[in-house]
Amino acid sequence: MTFFTIVMELGSSRPTFYFDVHGEINTDKTIELVRGRIEALGIRKVVVASETGLSALKVLDALPGHEVIVVSSAVGTTVEDSLIGDLAIGIADENILKELKSRGARVVRGTDPFWNLDAHTEITGIGKLGMMYFKVLSGGIHVCMTAILEATDAGHLSEGEEAIAMAGSFVGLDTAIVAGAANSVNFFKAFEVREIICKPRRPRYSWPINQRDWKGDLEKYKRFVKD
Q1: pTM for this structure?
Q2: Within a domain: residue 5?
Q3: Element containing residue 126 per DSSP (H, E)
Q4: Is position 94 within any domain?
Q5: What digits encode the pLDDT tens for the residues 78-129?
Q6: What's the domain range around 187?
Q7: Residue 213 lies inside a defined structural domain of this protein
Q8: Does the residue 3 lie in any domain?
Q9: Cα–Cα distance measured from residue 62 to residue 200, given in angstroms and rounded to the nearest whole number
Q10: Who contacts 222 (Cβ-Cβ below 8 Å, separation ≥6)?
Q11: Burial of 161 (0-12, 13-18, 19+ CB in 10 A)
Q12: Contact between residue 222 and residue 215 where contact means Cβ atoms under 8 Å apart
């Protein structure tokens, strides 16, 4: 029996892709990598964190026939003082929202389970600690996880069900994982990160973004900036 045979009997080998930088520039590659993992594992449900809906539309184009669950921030939420201004998130454009739904996407708009009432205070609760911990790996991994939690809370995933989640850094996609779903109240009891498909190699990027460690096309997002 060869060493290779022994290794294959113990498990399986699947790659993780590491991006050199964060950002929207990695969106197409992230979707390509997810498509490959879907084929390898036979997963039908894909969760995509999308604040404007543009990344979600790309996923729908690339993955016809799959169940796409779009998770976004609460209605009326804004990312203040970004490089392009105050960005309206939570899929604020009603035309994009209608298109997503008409194409079969299930849309969840709500609050990150780790983003508690003390978020804008000096208090460091368990939610903040969780966010700080997961951002050591990658901010996108934190968002992938919370997107799965929100999709499960909304009834689009069942606890223990395997799904793929995609997320990014600010806008676009640069991170994807395979996860075992759980409701947010059962996060520590049941949630599982089973595989990391891709992520930026270095977990941090500057804010406001500077097109050095975050790269991408911001022009198409200016339409979502509040006047």
Answers
A1: 0.92
A2: no
A3: helix 126-137
A4: yes
A5: 999 888 999 999 999 999 999 999 999 999 999 998 887 676 777 677 777 7
A6: 14-191
A7: no
A8: no
A9: 22
A10: 84, 85
A11: middle
A12: no
CA 94 centroid distance within chain: 21
108 is written with which tokens? 């969840």
Report pLDDT for 4: 54
Written as six digits, the tokens of 92 are: 């604020």
Q: Which two tokens stand for residue 62?
A: 């690339």
Check residue 22 and report its DSSP letter.
B
Q: Which two tokens stand for residue 5?
A: 């045979």
pLDDT tens track for 113-169? 888 767 677 767 777 777 777 788 899 999 999 999 999 999 999 999 999 999 999
For the chain, what is the domain count?
1
**8 A C-beta contact, residue 74 and residue 110:** yes
Rounded distance between C-alpha atoms, residue 173 and residue 88, angstroms: 18
CATH number for the domain harbouring residue 25: 3.40.1380.20
